[in-house]
Amino acid sequence: MTYDTNNIFAKILRGEIPCKKIYEDDFALAFYDIHPAAPTHALVIPKGAYENHEAFTANASDEAMAGFSRAIGKVATMIGVTEGGYRLIANSGANGGQEVPHYHVHILGGGRLGPMMAGTLNSD
Ligand code: 5GP
After folding, report:
1. How many other C-beta atoms are found inside a 10 Å radius of the C-beta of residue 85?
2. Which atom belonging to ligand 1 lies closest to the Cα atom of 35?
3. Is the pTM of this model over 0.85?
4. CA-CA distance, 30 to 46, in Å (whole number)?
5. How far is the CA of 30 from the centre of ligand 1 (A)?
6. Mutation to probe ligand 1, out of 1, 4, 7, 8 (largest number of atoms < 8 A from CB)
């Protein structure tokens, strides 16, 4: 899969589309999800061009991976979900329900979340 440089998160990274920014450093940008699926719903994206988790872990430097992982922890603290608890999700590909083909981690919290899987598996 080739990285699509015109995906919506690439445009947010380039400043072409606004976002409600939470945090930014050399490795990551974090902002609130436009359609929150929990009382508090943030997205953390790496700064490089990686479409999903395996592309990121195969191609990013150790420094970039460490920086991104640390940014997720910082953002969880900043948005106030660490005390009550929260969930991290990284969807990948069609079966994972990934909508935006730029690697991102969802941070969901701010209230008791539902079961981890909303639906049952189907064969289509
Ligand atoms: P995915 O399904 O790819 O894991 O999640 C993509 C997420 O990006 C969705 O939760 C969706 O609401 C969010 N999203 C899509 N477009 C935008 C946008 O333009 N701005 C922001 N802040 N979030 C977006």
Report:
1. 12
2. 12
3. yes
4. 9
5. 12
6. 8
